[in-house]
Amino acid sequence: MKKLVCLSFTLLTLVSFSVVADEQKEFQIQSKAAIKEFASTLKGALVSAMKSGGPTEAIQVCNQVAPAIAATLSEKYGFEIARTSLKVRNPDNKADCWERKVLNQFEKRKQAGEEVKTLTFSETVTSDDGQEMRIMKAIPTGAVCLKCHGSNIAEPVQTSLSELYPEDQATGFSLGDIRGAFTIRKTIEQ
């Protein structure tokens, strides 16, 4: 009887690990797709705004369209997707403790020679809500980003930024810096 209980426990444990492993693998696949969709959709909207109205119109995209894209994709994929940074423009995007830790790790990895566009990290963590699967992917600073996030921001752009984001920290970036990261979290159903 003792052997049967022990065997049953072992099988149950193996099945549980298998289910969790499958869920984590699916999360990785879906996260990659969601980040790609978020990045391409946002980039398309920003490019269009830059062509039609320049950086001041692109600021409106980040202010209004980016949160809508995040909300739509969160609903579509069934997890929370957002953007964050060590230097946020929108205080709603402020990094939590785990995200700050990962962003700092990204900075160290960049200093060690890794390319910003390849920096990703995922982990299962315990939160107040239980177990969560989390993943982040770094966002590199491109040349066009510097018009709103660089050191030499044109006056009309700076005025628009100051009006929308009075506590803006997201300036002073250089080409190739880590601008921030896409961040995803999903609670593991118990």
Give structural notes.
It is a single chain. With 190 residues, the protein is α+β, with helices and mostly antiparallel strands. Helices cover 55% and strands 18% of the residues. A four-stranded antiparallel sheet has the order 1-4-3-2, with helices on both faces. Strand 2 and strand 3 form a beta hairpin. Helix 1 runs antiparallel to helix 2 and helix 2 crosses helix 5. The chain is globular and about 50 Å long. About 8% of the residues have low confidence.
Number of helices: 5
Q: Kindly state the number of beta strands.
A: 4
> What does the average pLDDT come to?
89
Largest sheet: 4 strands, antiparallel
Helix and strand sequence: HHEHEEHHE
The whole-angstrom Rg is: 20 Å
What overall form do the CA principal axes indicate?
A: globular
Quaternary organisation: single chain
The class by helix and strand makeup works out as alpha+beta
N/C terminus separation: 29 Å
**Regions with pLDDT < 50 over 5+ consecutive residues?**
4-8, 10-19
User: Which range best describes the helical content: under 10%, 10-25%, 25-40%, 40-55%, 55-70% or over 70%?
Assistant: 40-55%
**Strand percent estimate:** 15-25%
- Order of strands in the sheet with most strands: 1-4-3-2
